[in-house]
Predict the structure.
Amino acid sequence: MKKVNVLKPVLVSNQQRAKENRRFFDKIHSLVINIIASPGAGKTSFIKKIVEHFKNRYSILVIEGDIKGQIDSQAISMLNVDVIQINTATECHLDAFMTAQVIPQIEKEYDLVLVENVGNLVCPAEFEIGEDYKLAILSTPEGDDKPIKYPLVFHLAKVVVINKTDLIPHLDFNIPQAKKRIKMENPGSMIYEVSAKTGSGFEALYEHIEKEINAKQEDKD
Amino acid sequence: MKKVNVLKPVLVSNQQRAKENRRFFDKIHSLVINIIASPGAGKTSFIKKIVEHFKNRYSILVIEGDIKGQIDSQAISMLNVDVIQINTATECHLDAFMTAQVIPQIEKEYDLVLVENVGNLVCPAEFEIGEDYKLAILSTPEGDDKPIKYPLVFHLAKVVVINKTDLIPHLDFNIPQAKKRIKMENPGSMIYEVSAKTGSGFEALYEHIEKEINAKQEDKD
């Protein structure tokens, strides 16, 4: 028996456009990470940590997706890296077409492109943008049951970052339980525990990202 | 000059269906509150507090919106109130049509209907379901900038609950700043500060809801 997976037409055309974006980013040897999380999970603070660590060695572009406003873009610009803002107006996620509109503004080869998606644990997971992979952030105050309740993003994310570990003493968040639930959705996902506030846990993640940047650079040769 | 506000067709038909739902709930004198928040902001814990306070005096129905699973429904059923689960599968919000599917299962007059929408600060705001009003929950770990970044829900919510006030000593959340930003989106909104964990701040909110339930009951006579 043959099985046909029917996708909504909007997702099919999005996927095609995402492939074209991906070809562009591959051509300029950029590692593109699509960062997805709930509002307030700490996406911007996380990006700031990554930027601060790598900015003197690698060229970095941050693409900021927000419904409205430029608060995060302004915060990241202060770190002296290139930032492009996408305001989605009523849309609750970035998609490949919005991302494609950014491409004509990219005038150099970036080693690392960090995309901060709109704060939403549901819809951004459905729309590829041309990324190498999705990185989901789960913050501890949200609770360790979120991988069960919002499974798609945890199913698709290659890397999951458990953020705000500094708050655990004040919460009922169970790290082994959370990890087990994440692995149930995606046994291959790599999980890192960090606090973007205190900086704890970032070393292993820096190493992970550095390896991936270097792998992309090797393609160049 | 005349101004035409163009709505997406899906929103127009949703609005029509929401009006019909509203007529049904009005006929059975139910106060219907549509509860909207990010994942992990504390919607279920909030509902449990309200249910525990009112269940011996009023008849209560909880409608649970989740993408998948029944964790919250099960937790609320333990309190011995009626619960109806809606699983949205891929949809990131409840809409009037999903809510309409619940109506044939409603076999008595409920004084209070609490609807827990899917955890999402963006899309649920766009879709009326037939509610009396929207109640938004903003949890302190999300940050006090959320009303600026996700304005629609704060623009539309008649009541905003700032939850997890017990965590404030460990965060950079500024209550007056948050309130100012909520009021910028909706000067008429009523703001309550609570901790669903410790129970602090609920008295004023109970009073608010009780007045509204009584107003609905007066229509009956």
In short: The longest helix of chain B spans residues 9-27. Chain B touches chain A at residues 38-41, 66-69, 71, 90, 92, 118-123, 126, 139, 141-143, 145-146, 148-152, 164, 166-167, 170 (CB under 8 Å). The CA atoms of residues 16 and 192 of chain B lie 31 Å apart. The radius of gyration of chain B is 17 Å.
